[in-house]
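User: My collaborator sent over this chain with a note saying "see what the structure looks like." That's all I know about it. Can you take a look?
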Amino acid sequence: QVRLVESGGDSVQAGGSLRLSCTVSGLPFRDYKMAWFRQPPGQWRKGVSCISENGDMTGYSDSVKGRFTVSRDNAKGMLYLQMDNLRSEDTAMYYCAADRIYWWLLPNYNYWGQGTQVTVSS
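Assistant: Without extra context I'll predict from the sequence alone. Here is the result:
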C-alpha cells in the first residue's frame, strides 16, 4: 500500500521558518518524481515545488522562489521542503505528491498525502 505522510506543519510568525517532511512508503521512492502543493482556505490546490528522482532538477512557483528549498533523501524515502522568510500568504494545507511522470507543478500526480497545516501570522 502506497503511503505519503506529511509532517512539520505548525503556526509561526511572519519571517520565520519551517521544514516540512514527507515520509513515503509502498513504492520505489528513488524512481518517483515528487512535488509539494498547497491549498489555502477556499482556494484551489497549487503547485509549490517539484523535484526529479535524483534531485538534479527542481522547480518552484514564482511565489516561493528564493524562499523555499525542496530536497529528498532517496535512502530514507523522504521528501523535504525548507520554508524560510514565511509570509501570511503562505498559510495553507501543504501536500506532498508522487508519480513516475514529471508533472512539474501540475496537480496530476498519482499519489497524495493527507496534508499538514502551515499557518503564518503577521
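A starting point for your reply to your collaborator: The chain has a mean pLDDT of 97.
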